[in-house]
Each structure stands twice: as structure tokens, then as C-alpha cells.
Amino acid sequence: MNNVSELKSRYNQIYPAFGSYTECMSRALFTGLSSSILGFSTAFCIQHLLKNKLPYPISGNILVSSFVAVVVGFQVTSVRAQSCQAAWLAAEEKHTFFTENDSKSD
Questions:
Q1: Which among 12, 15, 29, 13 is positioned nearest to 95, based on CA atoms?
Q2: Burial of 65 by CB count in 10 Å (0-12 exposed, 13-18 middle, 19+ buried)?
Q3: How many Å from the N-terminal Cα to the C-terminal Cα in the chain?
Q4: Which residue of 59, 67, 69, 84 has the fewest C-beta atoms within 10 A of its own C-beta?
């Protein structure tokens, strides 16, 4: 199951929108990874510029930057993944935007 094209061809008959879903999820995961890297580097640079005004030692910069990177990466990935899931459900014609919102309001 390491071959993505084989996986797409296998499930294309059952789920016609599976190919677009896998591509969307790939983009979502790589967007989350890149935003995590960008969040780490931004937090680290800001802490480096403000090193005299921060209440913790310089060795804490890595820990704080890592925490910021995890939070940013998780948030971006989860939002993008939810949009991919909603698009797949809408493309499968079994669910629509309105039936999804009706189930949330109950």
C-alpha cells in the first residue's frame, strides 16, 4: 500500500472523489509542516531580538519556540484537514453542506 496511484485506482470505483481527497490531505499535511517550521523560526527570531526583555534564560528559547511551532502546526493542519473532509463528503453526493449543518444543530 505504499504506491499512492495503486491505492487511488483501487478505491476509485467505490469512492470517485478519493483521488482529490488524498491530494487535498497531502497539501494539508505539508502546509501544516511548513507552518510549523515557519512558526518555530519566527518565534525564535522574535525571542532573539527581545532577549534582554524576556523573563527566562536564553536556553528556554528552544522550548518556547517548539511549543509555538506545535500549536501553529496543529491548528493549520486540523483546519485544512476538516476542509478536505467536508469537500470529500460533498463530492460523494451522500452529504451536503446543509445536512452537515443540520446534524451539528441537533
A1: 15
A2: buried
A3: 39
A4: 59
User: What is the grid cell recorded at 46?
Assistant: 522574535
Residue owning grid cell 482529490: 20
Instruction: Answer for the pair 68, 62: CB distance below 8 angstroms, yes or no.
Output: no
Per-residue pLDDT tens digits for 45-62:
998 888 888 888 878 889
CA-to-CA separations, 10 to 3, 27, 104, in angstroms, rounded:
11, 21, 32
Q: Which three cell numbers stand for residue 38?
A: 515557519
Inform me whether the pLDDT recorded for 100 exceeds 60. Answer: no
What does R_g of the chain's alpha carbons equal in angstroms?
Answer: 20
What pLDDT was estimated at residue 95?
54
User: Does pLDDT of 8 surpass 80?
Assistant: no
Is-contact 80 31, C-beta < 8 A?
yes
Q: How far apart are CA 58 and CA 7, in angstroms?
A: 48
* More confident of the two residues 53 and 10: 53
